[in-house]
Amino acid sequence: MIRKVQLEDLEEVMKIERQSFPVAWEYSIFLNICLQSGHIVTGKSKSLSMDVIEENDIVVGYAVWELDICKAECHILNLVIQKDERRKGKGRMLLLHIVDNLKTNRIRTCRLEVRESNIAARSLYEAIGFVASGKISGYYFDENAIVYTMRL
Ligand SMILES: CC(C)(COP(=O)(O)OP(=O)(O)OC[C@H]1O[C@@H](n2cnc3c(N)ncnc32)[C@H](O)[C@@H]1OP(=O)(O)O)[C@@H](O)C(=O)NCCC(=O)NCCS
Questions:
Q1: pLDDT tens readout for residues 40-99
Q2: How far apart are CA 1 and CA 126, in angstroms?
Q3: Distance of CA 102 to the CA centre of its chain
Q4: Fewer beta carbons within 10 angstroms: which end of the chain, N or C?
Q5: Residue with the nearest Cα to atom 4 of ligand 1?
Q6: Which atom number of ligand 1 is nearest to the Cα of residue 87?
Q7: Atom 15 (ligand 1): residue with closest C-alpha?
């Protein structure tokens, strides 16, 4: 089941985030998103959204993305599946769910950055139709980013 994040998910989300990244997003960022039930208006035409994917009532992954309705653009900021639940199709399911929503909202392009060495994520993005469109040197403190984009 995929749904908007809620405050009661915060502990599980932080556990997954810290387990998954050497530099985790700060607690305060997730707290803010959870307090607003996964949808924050950040500007005139901009918003931030967060969905979780759960199994047996336990959160096993999440995604965060930013929309600019005027520009018809989406920027995916975070996508994670809990370690023990990887390679079971959940990352694909969550990403496709977001892409479906983007299409419904008439968003035209979606982009994201990923570590050059992150084969799992890059394979997933390529599998669902993202195309590598650039490289940003030193985007992460210790590594380059590959930019992926998809026309919807
Ligand atoms: C990237 C990530 C979200 C993928 O989630 P997942 O649920 O394991 O992915 P799925 O099971 O849906 O895999 C879908 C496809 O992606 C590719 N893929 C996923 N993991 C892979 C891996 N370890 N090696 C190679 N390809 C992989 C495959 O094409 C796979 O299809 P297949 O299983 O039919 O071969 C997960 O590995 C993760 O949370 N990683 C840590 C956080 C992260 O790096 N996030 C991305 C930040 S940009």
A1: 999 999 999 999 999 999 999 999 999 999 999 999 999 999 999 999 999 999 999 999
A2: 24
A3: 13
A4: N
A5: 91
A6: 11
A7: 124
Q: What residue has token string 């530099």?
A: 23
Question: Which amino acid makes up residue 150?
Answer: M
Q: DSSP for 64-113, please give it.
A: EEEEETTTTEEEEEEEEE-GGGTTSSHHHHHHHHHHHHHHHTT--EEEEE
Domains and CATH numbers, the chain: 2-151 (3.40.630.30)
CB count in 10 Å sphere of residue 129: 14
Q: Which of 64, 77, 57 is nearest to 38 (CA)?
A: 64
Q: For residue 117, how far is its CA from the centre of ligand 1 (angstroms)? A: 13
